[in-house]
Amino acid sequence: MSVNNSLHLAPMLALGDDKQKNEFITPYTTSDKIGCFALSEPGNGSDAGVTFTTASYKGDHYLLNGTKASITNAFEGIDGFSLGKKEDKLDIRGSSTCQLIFEDYIISKENILGQPVYGFKIAMKILDAGRIGIASQALCTLETCPQNVIIETPKLLKIIKTLQKYNA
């Protein structure tokens, strides 16, 4: 939920006009849709200063071209561009992760948050807020670790004894 709340919804709430808020916030707070933030790219990871995805201004819209990699929540509730294969990951499995592939994807200029010349600065501020959310999530996970160890240890010991019995 941190990605949805701090990286997806917060910028729209802070920078969006009333029309954008109704169109892009309401569906993510009243349905099963969940948002994402597409930063990472193949070959350059999450280095926001080195991106290959382009947004070309065409008068009343922008054309977006490029690929974003390892995007959390990319699989659910997103249409209008193609998705890469869903990644099989070891970490948080409650959300999907995959590539987003943009090929002449049209974004109307009415859907741009803030002024385009400030896009990089806006993205960096969004990421700063997102880091707080992710850090909070990590702290909560760490807080529950001792409880989970107490709960899971008897199960683990039983499995170990069974494996030892069969010399596995």
Report on this structure:
- The structure is a single chain.
- With 168 residues, the chain is of the alpha+beta class.
- 43% of the residues lie in helices and 18% in strands.
- It contains 4 helices and 4 strands.
- It has helices at 2-15, 18-24, 26-30, 119-165, and strands at 54-57, 61-72, 82-83, 97-108.
- It has a 4-stranded antiparallel sheet, with no helix packed on it.
- Strand 1 (54-57) and strand 2 (61-72) form a beta hairpin.
- Helix 1 (2-15) runs antiparallel to helix 4.
- The longest helix is centred in the last third of the chain and has 47 residues, at 119-165.
- The two termini are 40 Å apart.
- The mean pLDDT is 82.
- It holds the Pfam family Acyl-CoA_dh_M.
- This is Short-chain specific acyl-CoA dehydrogenase, mitochondrial-like.
